């Protein structure tokens, strides 16, 4: 170039002139080096976070990446999911299967959510299960106790006759059908005191037919004797009651005569009272007349006294 252009070239154009980094990082490099430095290497250059699209100085990027809300991270509880950092809290609160929680059924166990999903349906002692026999619902911890009394569980006859039936049919079976049940002989009311298993009843009746007939005849004779004694007692009672009625009739007749005499006495007393009333009435009239005379005499005495004055 011309000599008179050298100064201008060095001041503004020459790429080998050293200058301080315009971004303030403190580096001093040639202009050619600075062109690359400010775009690619300077720690003060502005770069855009590839995760959140916000701008930062390069020297601040590493610190930002440690907190960038949009950077993808693994769940800290190692459930295997990858998510933006700003979704981690929500993930842990509502979704993460590795978060430990108390069993919602109240058994006291604390397990991860993934474990709880299986626990509440398959393992929890407080889970609700259905009895396969009666179709009623119970807590698992109560099921064993229920099965000991469940009316629909099949059990063997307690008298060991060999039959199997629902528990709620056992009593009816024993009372009506069980061949091992000891029952009274039908002639027990005639004093056959034999208790015999139901399966042997027919044999017993055949073997004891004569004895049963004798017991029945004896019972009938006892009834006839007792009825005869009862009739005799009733006849005696009727005779005693007849005598009593006769005496009562005689007493009533005597009382009737007495009442007749009392009525006659009362009639005589009534006549006497009427006469006494008539006498009293006559005496009353006489007293009234005497009072009138006394009143007249009093008036005459009063008149004489006035004249004397």
Tell me what you see in this structure.
There is one protein chain. 55% of the residues lie in helices and 14% in strands. By secondary structure, the protein is an alpha+beta fold.
Architecture blueprint of SSEs:
Elements: H1 3-12, E1 18-20, E2 28-30, H2 31-41, E3 46-48, E4 55-57, H3 58-65, E5 72-74, E6 82-84, H4 88-95, E7 100-102, E8 110-112, H5 113-123, E9 128-130, E10 137-139, H6 140-147, E11 154-156, E12 164-166, H7 170-176, E13 182-184, E14 195-197, H8 201-207, H9 209-308
Antiparallel strand pairs: 1-2, 3-4, 5-6, 7-8, 9-10, 11-12, 13-14
A few lines on this structure:
By secondary structure, the chain is of the alpha+beta class.
């Amino acid at each position: 170039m011309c000599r008179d252009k050298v100064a201008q070239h060095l001041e503004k154009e020459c790429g080998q002139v050293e200058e301080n980094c315009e971004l303030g990082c403190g580096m001093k490099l040639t202009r050619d080096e600075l062109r690359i430095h400010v775009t690619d290497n300077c720690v003060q250059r502005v770069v855009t976070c590839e995760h959140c699209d916000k701008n930062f100085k390069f020297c601040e990027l590493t610190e930002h990446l440690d907190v960038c809300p949009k950077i993808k991270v693994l769940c800290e509880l190692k459930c295997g999911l990858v998510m933006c950092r700003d979704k981690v809290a929500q993930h842990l609160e509502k979704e993460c299967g590795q978060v430990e929680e108390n069993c919602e059924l109240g058994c006291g166990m604390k397990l991860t959510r993934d474990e709880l999903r299986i626990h509440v349906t398959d393992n929890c002692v407080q889970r609700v299960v259905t009895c396969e026999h009666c179709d009623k619902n119970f807590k698992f911890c109560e099921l064993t106790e229920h099965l000991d009394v469940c009316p629909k569980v099949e059990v063997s006859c307690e008298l060991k006759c060999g039959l199997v039936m629902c528990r709620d049919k056992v009593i009816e079976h024993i009372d009506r059908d069980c061949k091992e049940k000891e029952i009274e002989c039908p002639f027990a009311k005639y004093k056959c005191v034999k208790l015999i298993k139901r399966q042997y009843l027919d044999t017993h009746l055949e073997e004891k037919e004569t004895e049963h007939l004798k017991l029945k005849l004896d019972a009938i004779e006892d009834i006839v004797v007792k009825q005869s004694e009862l009739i005799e007692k009733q006849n005696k009672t009727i005779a005693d009651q007849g005598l009593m009625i006769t005496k009562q009739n005689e007493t009533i007749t005597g009382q009737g005569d007495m009442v007749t005499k009392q009525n006659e006495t009362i009639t005589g007393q009534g006549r006497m009272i009427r006469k006494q009333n008539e006498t009293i009435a006559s005496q009353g009239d006489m007293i009234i007349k005497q009072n009138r005379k006394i009143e007249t005499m009093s008036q005459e005495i009063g008149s004489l006294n006035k004249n004397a004055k």
